[in-house]
Amino acid sequence: MTDAIRTDAVATMGESKIAFDFHSHHRRCGHAQGEIPDYVEAAIASGMTIFGVSDHGPAYWLPGDHAQPGTQMAISEMGAYVAEALELKARYAGRIEVRVGIEADWIEGRAEDLKRWLNDYPIDYALGSVHYALGTNIFNQARWQREEPEAVFRAYYASVVRAARSGLFDILSHLTAVESYSPPLRPELAAELYPEVADAAAESGAAVEINTSGYRKMGGDEPFPNRTMLRLLIERGVPLTFGADSHRPQEVGFAANRVVALLQELGVDTQNAQFFRTKRGSTLSVFPTR
Ligand SMILES: [Zn+2]
Ligand SMILES: [Zn+2]
Which one of the ligands is nearest to 102 CA? Predict the structure, then answer.
């Protein structure tokens, strides 16, 4: 067990609910609906005790203030975003604990820029996301018509390993998301690539989220990461957290009951979530796996 886990438990709600969700968006990223309070209110309505605001941070690796308006907020918007989230944290205190996060892109060769940029803001946690492999967005469905899948898988998982090893993140987001629209990753290739990802996650001091956008994107029975990866993470004692990756307020807590069932299937105790200390001095909630 990582020493970031404190022993005082935070309650989960009954058998089929999770009282926290650390991955949410709102209109600033340009492709989500609603304002932050809409998401916080949805979290309260569903009985959550801790909720993380984590919109897409800016495209710090591209020139200009707002290089990708439909994908992420402007660089100049970050200050207002963090200020609003901090204000909501204070306003909602006593009703729900708001955590101020950011979903930060891992970009090869830009770790120092990312580190400098993250340190500029008083956030509680950073989600680390690999959204690009070989320069193309992993959710771009057309790529699979023209690219060799194995090369994409290798590049993506190598990036995930480097993102984990960077030590910059508190939560590693949607691992295996490259497989959203891809041809199936052959089991032999998964057996080659996945263990290094799980090792890097275990050494990173970060938690791994179970991201239920996997159910929405893939329409099947696997979240991100999939069961195969989850088993490797659990074997290594990686703490697991939950994120619905909501882009609409009604998606807050999406499929939490399925995650509870999945974790129980995989032998994880879902009744005793615990606090997890972030590298930024705050706390999140996780399910310990050891
Ligand atoms: Zn993402
Ligand atoms: Zn997201």
Answer: 2
Measured in Å, residue 56 CA sits from the centre of ligand 2 at 7
Give the distance (Å) from ligand 2 centre to CA of residue 281: 22
pLDDT digits (tens, 9 = 90+) for 33-83: 999 999 999 999 999 999 999 999 999 999 999 999 999 999 999 999 999
Expressed in angstroms and rounded, the spacing between residue 75 Cα and the centre of ligand 1 is: 18
Using the mean position of ligand 2's atoms as its centre, give its distance from the Cα of residue 255 in Å: 15
Confidence label for 14 from pLDDT (cuts 50, 70 and 90): very low
Q: Are 137 and 131 in contact (CB under 8 A)?
A: yes
Point out the ligand nearest to the CA of residue 173: 1
CA of 59 relative to ligand 1 center, distance in Å: 13
Side-by-side strand order, sheet with 20-21: 20-21, 50-53, 97-105, 125-129, 171-172, 207-211, 240-243
Number of domains in the chain: 1
Beta strand 240-243 with 207-211 is: parallel
Which residue stretches of 166-270 are H helix?
187-204, 213-218, 227-235, 256-265
The answer to whether 214 and 222 have CB atoms below 8 angstroms apart is yes
User: Which CATH number does the domain housing residue 129 bear?
Assistant: 3.20.20.140
pTM above 0.85, yes or no: yes
Helices (H) and strands (E) in the chain, counts: 9, 12
Ligand showing the shortest atom-to-Cα distance for residue 129: 1
What's the rounded Cα separation, in Å, for the pair 86 and 71? Answer: 23
Distance in Å, CA 174 to ligand 1 centroid: 7
pLDDT digits (tens, 9 = 90+) for 149-159: 999 999 999 99
Provide the residues around ligand 2 (an ion) whose CB is within 5 A: 103, 245
**Residue 142 is part of which domain span?**
5-286
